[in-house]
Each structure stands twice: as structure tokens, then as C-alpha cells.
Design a protein that fits this description.
By secondary structure, the protein is of the alpha/beta class. The chain has 17 helices and 11 strands. The protein folds into 3 domains: about 230 residues, 3-Layer(aba) Sandwich (Rossmann fold), CATH 3.40.50.150; about 60 residues, no CATH class; about 90 residues, no CATH class. The protein has a 7-stranded mixed beta sheet, sandwiched between helices. Strands 8-11 form a two-stranded antiparallel sheet. About 45% of the residues are buried. The protein binds S-adenosylmethionine.
Length: about 400
């Protein structure tokens, strides 16, 4: 099958369905490519966005990733720019209208296949979200993107996860069987009828992790059940795909979900999980949890130095993502653990005694050194090592659920 069929689908159903007028009401944020997250996992938190920065959004669709990143760069008055590429002109029109509604002058738009991005120059960061699994040759697509990476650059990818999509592919097969000979509008009608009539034994009907996609509009239903080409990955297959392009996975998102020890309390099981290497551990978490319908991965060149921000110096600046720190501090004053739910899985992390006091001081500007000095006023015995031990516990928990990142200088 050529790209034409996929292109025709996204011309008819730009995805996801978005109304540019909604830009006046809200900014859609997510993963990959939130500025704090990409800095933390690709640039060890050290990217200086006051300097030039080129990001490519490959297969940008109706613009979610491109608009989020362009707005975040504009908000910090970065000279950074976002280059959007997609084969669908209908999707591009929506994305362009969204940029216009926000008066964003830092996004360029191209109608182009992602294998041709070499003509656009080198990029510090590449977003490719929900696209590789629709390509005829995902490895060739990823190699094209990898060859467009500037030295020290990295990517944020999203591909479908196999286990979390349990029931999707048999339903696609069924629709192909009963929809033979129908036109696209009739196939869509058939898909609606079918999703409303699935017996309770059907795996799609039993799968709680893709309900939103079924409940969404036409574009969502087409993307889920009538797609002309899609496949899903388990973690080892994703690691092999990434490796085939000379890249490696720096981290899968959210980290809490990809660590099997977070799902069990039995110490013997935990010990066995701890014998695994990092990719095996992510794979074990996927097999154990069974709920991952998408894998979001930050990837860097295979030979790149450690790209994940580390707690190695007092100049690191912690920053919240979408967290009300005062509310958090209030509700964790008495040593309450952190409880979070991700895709239906519940996590519980113990927090250190100074969690609340630290939380109220984290503002995206103060460094760990500043926070330590401030806390010493009320805790004179708190030396740097003791402070870091407590901060590390807070950081591990909140970073694992996508709420806390490190950067320097501040973003
Ligand atoms: C599922 S949508 C994802 C859109 C967007 N990245 C997001 O996450 O919201 C996939 C997009 O990839 C585009 N696409 C598919 N094959 C492509 C190719 N070979 N080159 C460029 N874009 C492609 C489609 O037109 C579509 O807009």
C-alpha cells in the first residue's frame, strides 16, 4: 500500500478533530514534547532556550504538539522555532488556523512526507507522535528523522502499545469483513453501529483503556477502527525499531508505569524485577500492567552521553508541571504518601519528611542550592547530603508521575 491511501484518509478526517476557535479557551498540552519534559529527558535539563532552537514536528496532524511547543517557546520569549510537516493539507489547514488564532509567528508549515525532511536542515528536537506506526516502513521513516537530528539532539516519539489495544485489531478485521464494497461514509456508519452492539465477551468491549477513542468523533473512530494502515508495538519491538535507526530510548513516559516494582508489594517479586536490565524492566512493566495503549519514548543517539537530568549539582532548578504546589504541600503535611493513577493503574510513593516544605519553595526559578539555604534557616542541621537525600525521594515520586522536572538555566 502506498502513502496515498493514508494521505487520503487524513485529508478526509484530519486528526485529531480540533476547532481553532478553542485556542481562545485553552492550550492542549501533553506528551511527548512538553518543553519541561523534553528538556529533562533529551538535554539533561541543560538546554538554554534563550539561544536558537529548531524543532521539527513530523506528521503534526491538526497541530497539538506543534502548537503546544510553539506556545511554550513564545511564552519564554525564546528565539526557537517549530517546523511542522504533514502529508495532509486538511490537517495542515487546521494547524495553521490554530497558530494564527494564537498569533504564533514561530511555526513554519510544510506539506511533505517525513522521509523527505532532510531538505529542511538539522533539528535539535524532533516530535513524531502517532505517525511511525502508520508508515509502510517505520524503520526507514525513523532513519530519515534520525539523519535530520543536529548533534546532541533527540526525539519524542509515540507509537501504539499492543496490549493496551487488545480488541482493536480483531474489530478492524471484522469491519473489513462486513464492510467490503461499502463507501467510506457507510463504513463509518457500520463502525458506529458495531461499537454500540459489541457483545460483552468482545475484547474491545472489555478494554477500558480505549473508551475515549470510541466515544470521540468520526476522526477518532476512523483512526481507531477503520485505519488503512496501523500496527502496535511491545517495548522490545520499539527498542529494536529505535536501535535500527542508531538511537536508544532514554525514558518511557510516565516512568512510574514502566517500572514493574511499582505494581507489586511482594519483596520476592520485586527482587526478581530488579535483576532485569533497563529495557527488560520496561518490558516487564508492560507485560504486567497490560494497560499501555501508547508508548511515549524520548530517544537520543545510541552513543549520546546520559541525557536524563540528574540531581548532581546545587544549580539544578526544579519545576512543576501542572501541579498546584500549595495544595500539594497542604495535603502532604503529615507524611501522607503520594497517590496517583495513570491509565487506570494506582501508584503510591512514600514522601520524605520535608516534602511539604520543599514543595512550597519549588517555583521553577529557585535552584536546589537556594531551596537548601532557605530550609536551613528552620532546619540548621540539614547539610547538603541530607537535603539531597530528601529532595531525591520527593523528585523520584513526582517525576515518575510526570509532575516535576529539573532544568538549568530556568525554562
Ligand atoms: C494520528 S495522526 C497524529 C497527529 C499528531 N502528531 C498528533 O499526535 O496529534 C497521524 C498524522 O501523520 C500524518 N502522516 C501519515 N503518514 C505520513 C508521512 N509519511 N509523512 C508525513 N505525515 C504523515 C497524517 O497525515 C496524520 O496527520
Amino acid at each position: 500500500m502506498t502513502d496515498d491511501v493514508v494521505q487520503a484518509q487524513y485529508e478526509a478526517h484530519p486528526y485529531p478533530a480540533r476547532d481553532p476557535r478553542d485556542e481562545a479557551k485553552r492550550l492542549i498540552t501533553g506528551s511527548p514534547s512538553h518543553i519541561l519534559e523534553l528538556n529533562h529527558y533529551v538535554f539533561a535539563g541543560r538546554r538554554d532556550f534563550r539561544k536558537p532552537f529548531r524543532a521539527l514536528v513530523a506528521g503534526g496532524g491538526t497541530g497539538d504538539g506543534a502548537i503546544m511547543l510553539a506556545q511554550q517557546l513564545a511564552d519564554i520569549e525564546s528565539p526557537g522555532e517549530v517546523v511542522y510537516v504533514d502529508i495532509s493539507t486538511a490537517a495542515r489547514r487546521v494547524a495553521e488556523a490554530r497558530a494564527k488564532a494564537r498569533k504564533l509567528a514561530n511555526v513554519q508549515f510544510h506539506t511533505m512526507a517525513l522521509v523527505d525532511v532532510a531538505s529542511l536542515g538539522a533539528f535539535d528536537y524532533i516530535d513524531c507522535c502517532g505517525v511511525l506506526h502508520h508508515l509502510d516502513d517505520p524503520a526507514a521513516g525513523l532513519r530519515s528523522l534520525a539523519s535530520a537530528l543536529a548533534p546532541g539532539g533527540g526525539m519524542g516519539l509515540m507509537v501504539y502499545g499492543e496490549l493496551g489495544r487488545t480488541g482493536v485489531y480483531p474489530t478492524q478485521d471484522l469491519l473489513r469483513l462486513i464492510g467490503r464494497g461499502l463507501d467510506d461514509a457507510d463504513k463509518l456508519g457500520l463502525a458506529r453501529r458495531l461499537t454500540g452492539a459489541l457483545p460483552s465477551t468482545n475484547w474491545l468491549a472489555r478494554n477500558p483503556f480505549i473508551r475515549d477513542w470510541i466515544a470521540g468523533g468520526d476522526a477518532g473512530l476512523v483512526d481507531l477502527l477503520l485505519h488503512s494502515r496501523d500496527r502496535a508495538y511491545r517495548v522490545p519491538e520499539l527498542a529494536a525499531l529505535v536501535g535500527s535507526a542508531g538511537l536508544r530510548i532514554a525514558q518511557l513516559i510516565e516512568p512510574a508505569g514502566y517500572d514493574p516494582i511499582n505494581y507489586v508489594t511482594d519483596p520476592k517479586l520485586k527482587k526478581r524485577f530488579e535483576t532485569l536490565d533497563v529495557v527488560e524492566r520496561w518490558a516487564a512493566a508492560e507485560l504486567l500492567a497490560g494497560n499501555m495503549a501508547k508508548h511515549v519514548a524520548y530517544v537520543v543517539k545510541a552513543d549520546a552521553p546520559e541525557s536524563v537530568a540528574a540531581l548532581d549539582a546545587p544549580d539544578a532548578v526544579p519545576a512543576w508541571r501542572d501541579l498546584d504546589s500549595d495544595a500539594f504541600a497542604k495535603s502532604h503535611r503529615r507524611g501522607e504518601p503520594l497517590r496517583a493513577a495513570i491509565d487506570g493503574a494506582a501508584f503510591r510513593f512514600a514522601l520524605p519528611p520535608l516534602a511539604s516544605a520543599m514543595a512550597t519553595r519549588i517555583d521553577g526559578r529557585r535552584s536546589l542550592g537556594d531551596i537548601h539555604r532557605d530550609l536551613m534557616k528552620s532546619n540548621p542541621g540539614l547539610d547538603w547530603a541530607a537535603f539531597v537525600a530528601q529532595y531525591a525521594a520527593l523528585h523520584r515520586a513526582l517525576n515518575a508521575v510526570g509532575k516535576l522536572y529539573l532544568n538549568r538555566p530556568p525554562v
